[in-house]
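so my prof wants the structure for this chain in the tokens format not the other one, which i didnt know existed until like an hour ago. anyway here's the sequence
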Amino acid sequence: MIERIENEVEMLERHLRVLRLVIRNEPIGIVQLADELSIPDHKVRYSLRVLEEEGLIEPTDRGATTTDDLRTYLNGANDRIDGLRERVGALAIGGGSGDRDNAATADTRASEP
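here's what i got, hopefully its the right format
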């Protein structure tokens, strides 16, 4: 279960890395993105497709460029990421090894007759 979430976060991280590079270097092509980010072309293409579907970038003859909708997205994105960070933090089962030991002990006691 946690592995799926990790995979999704890694993919989101890649999409945002691609977006940051498009913002800094627009227009920018697939080969340059792949080289600068050290990721395979097919993953860059996928990220570009996702970003285009979200309306954040658009393809041009010279490479990907940002859209006018990007600024609105960026204004809300950091707030949403902060909200997710809080939600994920609240999922933790225990903070340190002592907390995990206490939780395990409590679980054992709860299951005793």
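also thought this was worth mentioning. Strands lie at 57-60, 63-66.
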